[in-house]
Each structure stands twice: as structure tokens, then as C-alpha cells.
Amino acid sequence: MNDDLNQKVKKRRTFAIISHPDAGKTTITEQLLLFSGAIREAGTVKAKGKKSNKFAKSDWMEIEKQRGISVTSSVMQVDYDGFQVNILDTPGHEDFSEDTYRTLMAVDAAVMVIDSGKGIEPQTKKLFEVCSMRGIPIFTFMNKLDRDGREPLELVAELEEVLGIDAFPMNWPMGMGKNLLGLYDLYNQRVELKNDDSEVYLPLDDNGEVEGDYDFKQSSIYTQALEDAQLLHEAGNPFDRDLINRGKLTPVFFGSALTGFGVQTFFDAFVDLAPSPSETETEDEQVIQPDDAQFTGFIFKIQANMNPAHRDRIAFIRICSGEFEKGMMVTLNRTQKDIRLAHTTQFMADAREEVETAVAGDIIGLYDTGNFQIGDTIYSGKKSVQFKPLPQFTPELFMRVSPKNVMKQKSFHKGIEQLVQEGAIQLYKTYHTEEYIIGAVGQLQFEVFQYRLLHEYNAEVIMTPLGHKIARWIDPDDLNPNMSSNRNLLAKDRFGNPVFLFENTFAENWFKDKYPDIELKSLL
Ligand code: GDP
């Protein structure tokens, strides 16, 4: 153990903000940047203009252009109250893909932003499930308190009913919308009054009442909040830090990202309660501590052409232990090749910066000339390290692909191979005829694939949609040629394992009835 390194690691908070589109993820990120002094005025992050010029689905150029601007929000590092905070973006809607899921493998905690007028929406649920699978702590922010939303009790109950996670309200709204009086802060034992200029904090006495004479204490909004707080105290879940750490209990905060009300209270508690980077397990079940002197890390995301003018490719690495120093030599475990990390980048609010040093928990971007693949482990020194593979996600959408120009077969194959390695898309082949089928979690992956094949490999492709399929793997020994029909297409994955692509649940159940002894497996 190294004391100095340990101190630095303890000050790291690496998290993702998850939400359904429009719940307020960008707005709250911006508030965090404002508080940390990384930006001076609101609107910087919003420069993406994602609402005003919604791109046509097929127009990847436009998406790329946007990406050029929005890279700042894909990974950001800011100082907040003495903490080094790494924020990872998890795009919601059109860009929803495996990339989003994998990003969640690189964080230690998640902030879940919910629109209090809408409650839990589909994308919130999907992202929550991935976080929950990893058992990481999840902090809930009920947003848009400046508007009339749903009843707070109902919102909290929904967390438990729909997501199946226990909730602990850290604070409780006193009114909402135009009648918003403030927050009854159970955690800090104070009332935070809404005040147009600055926050006003009033301490609570032993009975949970605000000390002193104030007019608002006569209002029914205040007495209602007192009653609710009493109810939560008696019937709610107790505060339990261990359960929070294991992702079994979510602390819930109310506030308004737009006006900033309650946001600082939220982030203060977040940096206090969220865990610092912890140990990482290797493939052979060894445990690597974040303050181990050996530098280790894994690549969870590769983004090519982030800057269209330079055609660069950046491999994002999560540092798991040790300290990164500019120019250091590392070994890429998969190939055993030694690589000098001379050219790296870190993303501050509105600029990229060369990284001088970084420690466990930090995310840095490595300029890549084609060395790295998703899931790669790199390390310094002699002791070889391989972290567990990143999970593969069961694709839901499929396309048949073939080259438009048979003369360009070679670049077609090369392009597909590289994009598959990058984790941009999953590749399958029909079992006997070996026609290419690609699988994705989100539609946008296909568009990126097609665009990149054309522009980076000069290969035009014909894509025939196969639509939604349920992909299920079977043991190769169980396979018999009669099993395949037009409702369950037999394919093989890129390792040659048999997989059925069922048309729908009906087809899957029909198969299960017919072959009760065959086990059907999915990825994650
Ligand atoms: P994202 O899609 O989750 O990143 O959501 P944005 O941060 O872009 O917010 C979506 C819309 O909701 C924007 O028009 C925001 O101005 C608005 N918004 C975000 N937070 C609040 C809030 O606290 N109150 C209100 N009234 N509107 C908000």
C-alpha cells in the first residue's frame, strides 16, 4: 500500500448519470460544472443543441458533427469540494447501444435523474438494471421540483415497486411548483428554504421543527412536510450505509436542476457517501487494490473519429490501480506488446487536456493507432494482469449484410473485422450458408456501422433488416439440423457457437415445448 496514492484514490468519485431523455441529465451535469468552477455560465454543455436540431436517423454525418462538439460530455473530470470527480455520459435515446452499457462497467456509482412529473420511464429502468446487476450504489435525484409533479410518496413508492430498490429520502419537498417552499432535509437535520438569491438553511430542533419564529411555520405546506417526515421516520427504511454501498438502498433527493435548487445539497451528500474506487477482480480471481503500486487498467470504450478533422481514434481506459504518468511504458496483455503511453487526453468541461498524471478511478483517453480492443487490459511492470472480460449484451436487432460491390470484398471483410473488434457491432453468420448477420442493441449502431464501413473502409454495403429477434444460445452438442425453421433462424456467433434467432416469444416458447431438455441461454 502506498499512502500518498491511497490519499489520492480516496478523493476520486467516478460515476455515470443515468436517465430517460429529457429528465434533466444535461442540466444537472451543467450545475455540477458550475459549482465546481469548471464553467462560468450555464449553456456551455447545452451547446450540443440536441433538442433544436434533431437529426434524421440515417444522417450519421450530422451525428458525427454533434459528437465533435459533445465529446466534452462523454467523459469529464472536475474538481468538486476537494474531490476529483469523473463523470461518464450514458447517452439515452437514439444513441442507445452496447457502448452505454459498457460505460456503466467503468463507474463506481450512478446518479439516477428522474423527472418528478413522469416518474420512472423505460430508459431509466433499462439503465438501472445494468447498474443493479453490478451492485453499485445508486443515488436518486427527483428533478423538476419547480413544476407541479407527482406526489413525493408516490414517486418513492414507485422506486420500490417498479425497480425493486428500497429508498431512503434524504430530503422531502415542502410544496412544489409555484408553491415550493423548500426542502425538509432529514439527512442534514435542517430546512433549506427556497430563496431566489441564495440558499437559506434553518436548523431543526429535537422535535424536528424549525427553531424560531417564521411565518411559513403556519402554512399547511410546512405542517404537511412535518407529517410526512414523521411518517417516513416511523414507516420508512432506516438509513444504512452498507445497503447504499451495495446498491440495495437508494438515497433519494428532491430538487430542481434548472433553478439549481437542492443541487448543491445533493452533490455534497453524494461526494460524501459515494464510494471511492475499490478493488478490481482479475480473470483468475486475483484482487487488485486501487492503491497497488502497479499501474493497471482496462479499455471499456473506443471512439473513432471524435474529431473529424483528424480522424483520430481514442481508447478510453479506466485506471484500476497505480498511477499513470505521461510517457510510461505498459504491456497490452492480449498481445503482450509493449506500448508507450505518450499521447493521452483527459476531458475537462470545455477542452481536452494532455494528462500528466492520473490514478485509480480516473478515466483517460489514449490516442490509438489500432492497438486496442474493448475489454483489453494494460499494465506496467512485469506481473501480467488480465481483468475479467466485459459482459456482452444480447443484441435485439438484426440485419443481413453483404458487400454492394463484389470487387471490394477485401475491404468489406477488413472493415467488419475491425468494427467487431472495437465492439461497435456483433457479428453472426447463418449456420450453413455463412451469410453475414450483424446484431445490435440499438438501431443507431447499424447506422454508424454502415457509415463507417463506407467512409473508413470504402466498402458500400447492402443491409436487409431482419427486425427484432430473440437471440438464444444452445450447447453445440444439443444441436440437430431439424431444429431450425423459418421462425427460428439458426446462426453462429463469431466464435462458431450456435445461436437461434427467434421471431418472437411465441416462437421461443414453441421451441421450448418441443425440446424441453434443451437449455436456451442469453447473454446479459
Ligand atoms: P436530458 O435529456 O436528460 O439531458 O435533459 P436536459 O437536461 O436536456 O433537460 C430536458 C429539458 O428539461 C430541458 O428543456 C431543460 O431545460 C428542462 N429541465 C431540466 N431540469 C429541469 C428542472 O429542474 N425544472 C424544469 N422546469 N425544467 C427542467
Automatic annotation (TrEMBL):
Pfam families: EF-G_D2, GTP_EFTU, RF3_C. PROSITE patterns: G_TR_1, G_TR_2. Its main location: cytoplasm. InterPro entries: EF-G-like_DII, EFG_III/V, G_TR_CS, P-loop_NTPase, PrfC, RF3_C, RF3_dom_3_sf, RF3_GTP-bd. It comes from the Bacteria. GTP binds at residues 19-26, 89-93, 143-146. Gene3D superfamilies: P-loop containing nucleotide triphosphate hydrolases (3.40.50.300), Peptide chain release factor 3, domain III (3.30.70.3280), Translation factors (2.40.30.10). It is found in: Cytoplasm. Increases the formation of ribosomal termination complexes and stimulates activities of RF-1 and RF-2. It binds guanine nucleotides and has strong preference for UGA stop codons. It may interact directly with the ribosome. The stimulation of RF-1 and RF-2 is significantly reduced by GTP and GDP, but not by GMP. This is Peptide chain release factor 3. It comes from Fundicoccus culcitae.
